[in-house]
Amino acid sequence: LPWSFARGRGAREGMLQGPRKGAAALSARGAKVFYANAIAKLQKRGFIGPAYTLAKSVMPKISETEAAALNSGSVCFDRELFEGNPSTKKLMEKYKIKISPEEQAFIENETEALCEMLDSHQIDKDQNLPPEVWNYIRENKFMGMIIPKKYGGLGFSGHGHARVVEKIAGRNGAAAVTVMVPNSLGPGELLYHYGTPEQQNFYLPRLAHGIDIPCFGLTGAPNGSDAAGSMQDEGVVVQENGVLGMRVSFSKRYITLAPVATVVGLAFKLRDPNKLLTKGKEGITVALLPTEPNQFAPEGIKGLRVGARHNPLNAAFMNGTVQGDNVFIPMSCVIGGEAKTGYGWNMLVECLGEGRGISLPAMAVSSGRLSCLAVPLDDCGLRRRMTSLSGRWIRASPKAIQGANRQYGRRPGEACSHR
């Protein structure tokens, strides 16, 4: 019934009035009673119950990985959206969109200094960041923004992390991706939430100080982030020379930072046909593979091949492959140890959403701002005119020209060498 039925002089009584203007009036209370009775009648008529039973019988059962995804994380504002009753007031009260004085100082000083070091034209030409930029990023803990301070990281909030990435992306995309990946798709957050104390104490300080450069091997030839369904990388639990481990074959591609990584996060499907596991279970597992021997892999990971670099997008950030055939991986390399075997899907859906929810939107915001600034400017010189949306030609302000020149690393009056 239309809500207009609830209007009229007789609305208080919740009774139908005479045929006035082709409609009747119901009170709010009467409308609720009416709908409740209508639903009850439908149920008595045997429609809803049998229909629900039929739908339940033909729908496939929820798989283990689907159940893990449904039970992971939390629900907040997105629930209100689906309920059709979003409250922006509650959203603003729960999430304070502020950055700390420490984060603001980092943006104004270290991040500003990094942006001044970036020459986008030269970076695109060299297809790499200069060595001094790599060193600056590592030494100033840009790769450890989300790692807690007790492990040597910066301990930034999600908003602070996004603001840093956003600012760098406005200057150079390759540098922004280089900073973004360790703070979103890298193993730092996984180690903090699921790693053993030994793994946390060893790896997190090294990641925070840029001693180790991480990458994360998830994407393969048949799958992207849909690891549960189409991943073909598999491992089998084995015991060799008294050491419990896994023999794993894998082929990952489009792995950002792989060509320069010193530690590789690897997701694969684990099987235990010989029932060697005393803890954990079969299923998607995440391991951390060092490219050099360390306390978790004293003999290294023989057969691990990182690289070579591939560049399908003609982008300057590092991108490459991670491969191995029947590689032995000690059980101590699994994030969380043997107890967390088969728990990789939970790890992925609970933690790696930071890349989608924080880092990538931050880069999108920066790209939008850059487009608004650069696209309307006349050709590449950026000196004379801008076009307004109405098609009129107006003179670009000196401030806009100066900002655009800084964006592209060009000195005032310098001609553009490429489009």
Could you explain how this protein is built, in words?
- The chain has helices at 28-44, 48-58, 64-71, 77-83, 88-94, 101-117, 120-126, 131-139, 158-169, 173-180, 188-194, 197-208, 227-230, 344-351, 353-374, 398-407, and strands at residues 214-217, 234-240, 243-256, 263-271, 283-290, 305-309, 319-330, 385-387, 393-395.
- By secondary structure, the protein is of the alpha+beta class.
- The strands form 2 sheets. Strands 1, 2, 3, 4, 5, 6 and 7 form a 7-stranded mixed β-sheet that branches. A two-stranded antiparallel ribbon has the order 8-9.
- The radius of gyration is 28 Å and the shape is globular.
- Mean pLDDT is 80; it is low at 1-26, 378-395 and 412-419.
Mean pLDDT: 80
Multimeric organization: single chain
- The run of helices and strands is HHHHHHHHHHHHEHEEEEEEHHEEH
Low-pLDDT stretches are: 1-26, 378-395, 412-419
Sheet having the most strands? 7 strands, mixed
Tell me what portion of residues adopts beta-strand conformation: 15-25%
- Please give the number of β-strands: 9
The helical percent reads 25-40%
Rg over alpha carbons: 28 Å
Number of helical regions: 16
Query: How far apart are the first and last residues' alpha carbons, in Å?
Result: 61 Å
Give keywords:
16 helices, 7-stranded mixed β-sheet, alpha+beta, 40% helix, 419 residues, disordered C terminus
SSE map:
Layout: H1 28-44, H2 48-58, H3 64-71, H4 77-83, H5 88-94, H6 101-117, H7 120-126, H8 131-139, H9 158-169, H10 173-180, H11 188-194, H12 197-208, E1 214-217, H13 227-230, E2 234-240, E3 243-256, E4 263-271, E5 283-290, E6 305-309, E7 319-330, H14 344-351, H15 353-374, E8 385-387, E9 393-395, H16 398-407
Parallel strand pairs: 1-4, 2-4
Antiparallel strand pairs: 2-3, 3-7, 4-5, 6-7, 8-9
Helix pairs in contact: 6-9, 9-10, 9-15
